[in-house]
Specification:
Elements (H helix, E strand, L loop, with lengths): L7 H21 L28 E3 L6 E3 L5 E5 L2 E5 L2 H9 L7
Antiparallel strand pairs: 1-2, 3-4
């Protein structure tokens, strides 16, 4: 369930809410088989793996997600270059050792 979580505890809450929803549905009608979604395998994207669609986008150096620079909530600078992040956790990871993410 998309609850708008940014931190790991908030994301965990979203996952638990979905698990609870599936379990409740199964207990209400045990004869009905509950469909479960198969989650895609997420792999770390390489920074140069895909071109950015627009100049107003940047790639999160930690996880590889595309981030809209205009409305980015998380941003850091290192060696006079701006870096944009999809979530607080990626920003904190980057801030801990920015030299690992030089491009």
């Amino acid at each position: 369930l998309e609850l708008g979580g940014d931190t790991l505890p908030e994301i965990a809450l979203s996952v638990m809410a979905e698990i609870t929803q599936l379990r409740r549905a199964a207990s209400i009608n045990p004869a009905q088989k509950v469909k479960t979604a198969t989650l895609p395998v997420v792999q770390k994207a390489e920074p140069a793996a895909k071109p950015l669609a627009a100049s107003g986008e940047a790639r999160d150096p930690v996880c590889g997600m595309v981030v809209e620079t205009a409305g980015a909530r998380y941003e850091s600078s290192f060696e006079d270059k701006a870096f944009y992040f999809c979530c607080l956790r990626c920003k904190e990871t980057f801030d801990g050792s920015p030299q690992e993410y030089r491009t």
